[in-house]
Amino acid sequence: MECKLNMTDDTLTAELDGEIDHHTAKNVREQIDLEIDTQTPKTLILDFSDITFMDSSGIGLIMGRYKKIKSIGGKVKIKNPSPNTYRVLKLAGMDRLAKIEREE
Question: CB burial class (10 A; 0-12, 13-18, 19+) of residue 46?
Fold first, then answer.
């Protein structure tokens, strides 16, 4: 699992690549949280374009980052989840916490 972070203006983008499971979520969470703490972005974009698998750890990753960003007045966007990941996100109610943007 790779996580490339990029801060532009007041937006932090986390480009995620690989599988999000209980083995990888902790490291990604720590990387993103450190960047949020040091940069205080107004928007966090979680780019799921290259995610090949996600279990409930991915839901936890999103929920925790949502709470962290919301506490500093920001918002979360989820970008380009696969059709399967999108279905999981919708079933878990993540669309009520974060805007989900999909390329058609």
Answer: buried
Domains and their CATH numbers in the chain = 2-101 (3.30.750.24)
**The two three-digit tokens of residue 46, written as one number:** 């979680």
The CA distance from 20 to 41, in Å, is 23
31 conformational bin, left if phi > 0, alpha if psi -120 to 50, beta if neither: alpha
Q: Characterise 99 by phi-psi region: left (phi > 0), alpha (psi -120 to 50), beta (else).
A: beta
Torsion of CA 83, 98, 45, 74, to 10 degrees: 180
Residue 35, pLDDT above cutoff 70 = yes
What is the model's pLDDT at position 1? 86
- The DSSP 8-state label assigned to residue 96 in this structure reads G
Predicted pLDDT at 74: 96
Q: Inform me whether the pLDDT recorded for 104 exceeds 70.
A: no
